[in-house]
Amino acid sequence: MAGTVSRLGQVLVVCAPSGTGKSTLIAKLREEFPNFGFSVSYTTRAPRGEERDGQEYHFVSRDHFVAMRSRGEFCEWAEVHGNLYGTATAPVTEMLGKGMDVLFDIDVQGAKQLKKTFYKGTFIFLLPPSREELTRRLTGRGTDSEESIAKRLANAKGEIGEARFFDYWIVNDNLERAYQEFRAVYMAGACKPELRTDVEETILKEWEDDE
């Protein structure tokens, strides 16, 4: 029996302290693999500038958001500066069912929430090579005050303390090497047996039927 081998989509969750190079690595991955699914988050904050409902965010009232949360419709949510933000489970599940991978660039607390719903996902933590190097990178930006840098370093300590929660660790001491590791983890995650449902339904079943 012949057929096209495909798979379910992969949830790829990436966390890292500020200054680790997460945005650069994610941009490189999305450039090489441009077909990631994107879920439009919900928020209670007002639109800014030319933001449009359903494009950058679904802009909803606090009561609407809280009602969705009470019904268990979010796979992750957080309150930031008095505004609520959340990712609805249903559209993510729909994309995964269509074989689309969904990438989450998120903080540690959000990753822990996602683990409860998408426990088969691939959870990656990016690390700086040292405290000294992270300090150098944050200082070298020239965009943050000393107070801001101190706050980011304090946050980094707490985030790195949660690194053991993740499936994979990647140390970004060399961008190209870190990207090759990042890419390899992503590609390996796509080969997990639990995502290759039609392999079981086609190739494996074909051999079992011969018994």
TrEMBL record:
ATP binds at A16, P17, S18, G19, T20, G21, K22, S23. It catalyses: GMP + ATP = GDP + ADP. Pfam families: Guanylate_kin (PF00625). GO terms for molecular function: ATP binding; GMP kinase activity. CDD domains: GMPK. The keyword Ribosomal protein does not apply. Residues 9-187 form the Guanylate kinase-like domain. Keywords: ATP-binding, Cytoplasm, Kinase, Nucleotide-binding, Transferase. Its EC number is 2.7.4.8. One of its GO terms (cellular component) is cytosol. It is found in: Cytoplasm. Gene3D superfamilies: Guanylate Kinase phosphate binding domain, P-loop containing nucleotide triphosphate hydrolases. It comes from the Bacteria. Its main location: cytoplasm. The keyword Cell membrane does not apply. Essential for recycling GMP and indirectly, cGMP. HAMAP family: Guanylate_kinase. Belongs to the guanylate kinase family. This is Guanylate kinase. The lineage of its organism: Bacteria, Pseudomonadati, Thermodesulfobacteriota, Desulfovibrionia, Desulfovibrionales. The gene is gmk.
